[in-house]
Sequence to fold (236 residues):
Amino acid sequence: MTTVVDHRMLIEVLPQSRWIGAQLARAKIALEQGQSPESVARLLYADGSLTLTKAKEIVASLAAVPLESLLTVRTKMGSAENPITKLFPAAITERQFVEALDALSAKRPSVRYRDDRKDGHTLVDFTLTEGDDEIPVNVKNAGTRFENAATLVGLSPDDCIPIPAYKAHDAVEKVPNLLYAVCVNYGLLAKIRDELLSLLSPAEGHVWNVLNAYGGTLIRDAEDQFIYGMVSKYWD
Fold:
């Protein structure tokens, strides 16, 4: 079943997103406001995702076709959960970790921290500093029990945090002194799935559905803006 995209709702929630879907929504609004196809095409081209020729081709049909017909449908791999739902636990866990860091800094003023998430999706989320000492930290949410732990690693599922080995290998190669800070909360994903949608406004709920249905160039930019925005707004 095709998910219909309301371009105005999309821009209401993601006004600055660099995702191609948001770019096209802004272009559609610009056409509705009376801007010339040539100027809209050049604005679309300036966003960097399309050649000028492709931008002109899309703008020529943008007013007459539904926006969803120009977007790439997301491929759901195997039994993967709703992709947007899966990203919320990480953002919530990071918020909890920042609150813990603020509490630590209040008790021990010589300890500061740097938020490295603005540098993109890297291994280091935060860096704790005290004098010349630094500790890089990657924050993780453990939301699924490692049910085969007893068979595979000889530990009870309750005594084994499920972190894939490739993450450890990656850290050894790139950031040897990296610490993983893991929040074990096996009920968080179900709580988000059951309760979060009821908190969202109609426009936010619509964007939730759109981001689950469509991908394309710079989709992660839209996901980050949506998820961190919703966590900040509805955290309490």
In short: Strands lie at 112-115, 126-130, 133-142, 179-184. The mean pLDDT is 91.
